[in-house]
Amino acid sequence: MSALTFELKHKDKNSKARLGKITLPHGEIETPVFMPVGTAATVKALKPEDVEELGAEIILSNTYHLYLRPGHEVIREAGGLHNFMNWNKPILTDSGGFQVFSLGDMRKITEEGVEFRSFIDGSKHILTPEKSIEVQTSLGSDIMMAFDECIPYPADREYVKRSLERTTRWLERCVKAQKDTEKQALFGIMQGGMYPDLRRESARQILEFDLPGYAIGGLSVGEPREVMCEILDECVDELPENKPRYLMGIGSPDYIFEAVERGIDMFDCVLPTRIARNGTAMTSKGRVNIKNAKYEKDFTPLDHDCDCYTCRNYSRAYLRHLFKSNEILSSTLLSTHNLHFLVNTVKKIRESIKENRFLEYKKEFYDNYGY
User: Fold this and answer.
1) Which of 362, 201, 371, 273 is nearest to 51 (CA)?
2) Which H, E and C letters describe the chain, residue by residue?
3) Which residues form the catalytic set?
4) Which phi and psi (to 5°) does residue 295 adopt?
């Protein structure tokens, strides 16, 4: 038996957007779903109960960071990541691949895995497919990701081809290393860069493993949005309809709408909390940079159309004051709003799909947001 079951509940009549339900050991998830990122076992500036209250059904944590600190052995002794961070809903862990491949000169890729130096103390490590699965098993996530090579943009075709083939070989090693498919679901990751034929080849290879779900990697890595959408069209058509489809690393509203329109079920990004720490909020009328002087005496809510805790209780003037004063509460209140905004937007997306008016809602949202 698999740790994951997926039910396709409804398809929009005018697009590829779809509704589904994923059942995991720690609960059910309605899809499409946005997953807040808790890199180091915390969604920055927020308590787990705050994140749950915002409506989040699943979070993502990072294998690379937790392996380096506090160490997966510590978390295993704590009873797994759910106990360690006091989060009782589902957790997805990434493989660590994106982080080690983003280290540049601090890492070396071999067939065995990736040698790298810790960003904490410079110590030398090697992350292999087997090690990634070992760490994720210790973390006890509901969904774990196969170790893959995330290539940069742009990339030479021959390198991309060699890379996707290595990713497939690493996937085979991940499958062999997984001990218990009833407790954790393993997702394979499609690569292939910006080459449609290589995307199709990668899909053909990873589908042979008949996994509970599949992710699309190597997009939203610097390419223009139009290019991402073109490649995404090619990718989604290659993935099975009866399993979850996960587009890794997207979190801006426009990318979410484009992904959902093409049949994507899951997405994640650090964007909402990262821009919050930099004083930026997502609102129904577009982004608001709270640092701007024009908000100094603006005693209105951040977003008149939002009912989150921040908008119910605080003004733009107060939020600007907190940010300019370097108060920690600024990050908490803006992160609360941004995550509420995205989670609530995706909830409205689900409602629009159910009513077969997704494209209408997309246009309405874009018109208001300023896209």
Assistant:
1) 273
2) CCCCEEEEEEECCCCCCEEEEEEECCEEEEECEEEEECCCCCCCCCCHHHHHHCCCCCEEEEHHHHHHCCCHHHHHHCCCHHHHHCCCCCEEEECCHHHHHCCHHHEEECCCCEEEECCCCCCEEEECHHHHHHHHHHHCCCEEECCCCCCCCCCCHHHHHHHHHHHHHHHHHHHHHCCCCCCCEEEEEECCCCCHHHHHHHHHHHHCCCCCEEEECCCCCCCCHHHHHHHHHHHHCCCCCCCCEEECCCCCHHHHHHHHHCCCCEEEECHHHHHHHCCEEEECCEEEECCCHHHCCCCCECCCCCCCHHHHHCEHHHHHHHHHCCCHHHHHHHHHHHHHHHHHHHHHHHHHHHCCCHHHHHHHHHHHHCC
3) 94, 268
4) -95, 0
pLDDT tens, position by position, 6-55: 999 999 999 999 999 999 999 999 999 999 999 999 999 999 999 999 99
Pairwise CA distance, residues 101 & 123, whole Å:
17
Question: Is pLDDT at 100 greater than 80 in this prediction?
Answer: no
Provide CB contacts within 8 A for 79, sequence distance 6+. Answer: 140
CA dist 350 and 57 (Å) reads 14
Residues listed for the chain: 371
pTM, whole model, 2 decimals? 0.97
User: CA–CA separation, 98 vs 100, rounded Å?
Assistant: 6
CA distance 72 to 137: 9
